[in-house]
Amino acid sequence: MDTAPPPHARLAALDVVRGVAVLGILLLNIVSFAMPEAAYVNPRAYGGWRGADLAVWAVNFVLFDGKMRGLFSFLFGASMLLVIDRAEAKGEDAASIHYRRMGWLLAFGLAHLWLIWKGDILAHYALVGMLAFGLRDLPVGRMLVLGGLLIAATTVLSATIPAAVFHGQAIEALNRTFGVPSAAEIARELALHRGGYAALFRARFAEYATMPLTMLWLYGPETLAYMLFGMAALRSGMLRGEWPRERYRRWLRACWGIALPVEAAIAMWLIFTRFELFPVALGAWTLTVPVRPLMIAGWICVILLLARPGGALTDRLSAAGRMAFTNYLLTSLVCTTLFYGYGLGWYGHLSRWQLYLVVAALWTAMLLWSKPWLARFRFGPFEWLWRSLARGRLQPLRGPASV
Description:
about 400 residues; mainly alpha; 20 helices
């Protein structure tokens, strides 16, 4: 009979999935690093929307957009639960440990948001993670039901955006995010991001100082749902890699059999309508919400079915996943240096498909450096710093990472 791993054991399956997630999230974030804001949602806004540019947009939209963020959120919930379970197994004060971790994560996130990049997700995870603690002991079934209700609430909330477009409300503001901004607006963003650090910092702080609170309203219910789904996936054995392979295959067929046709149909509709404001607001913002959890669950199945224990790529993905916090932050430091004016100033100079040459280079770097680092050190640099701050004392760093 299968037995649960000891409380201190690493979960190899979780690390591999996290490695894919930290690489995959860059597929979407790269657009935010390199182009005006509206280009993230609407390829007509900037960066090209024909030929190879349209092809990479379509692949990202169907397979990755929102799914990698959601996968990261699943994993955050699962990892949070692991830390809590291990603390309780050792007789430690799990609540104290959890809230210290979330408090320091919030500090990291705010520093990341204000000093480096407007697209931070860490502060949001910290705030939602504080709320999720009280739900950790729910049975798996109730986690899934509550998560489903939160997804339904998110769908209703997100529908206010296309409704506003339909009724002609706040069109100028919504066009800056979902449509094709004016030439003057694009020029303003280009000039800002190609300029010096001081002007960019002032503009970012003025516009995004309270962004974590705004995100809690816009994305909080969905993120909490994903964290619940992640905790349920851990409890059920799905994220532990404990399911029979046929069960993963069955879930993959069911999840992607529903979600992929829906995502593909939305993508074709957006292309057919030439990315007009209302179809983008309805299709890209609202209609994808209820099918996204199915896509994410399917991704977990794909990754665990394809991962070969002991394989060279699997081991490197696992190492990148163990250092996901460090790799995420270093990606921001590298990309802002490449694209912003105080670095190389590439902002707005590459077309959409060309950005993925940068992504390939960064993926290669993450896969190459993470494993050798963990052969010499127990944690990634930022994982070690976070752990030390949360526990109130320096943690041992030298020595190979534990298994």
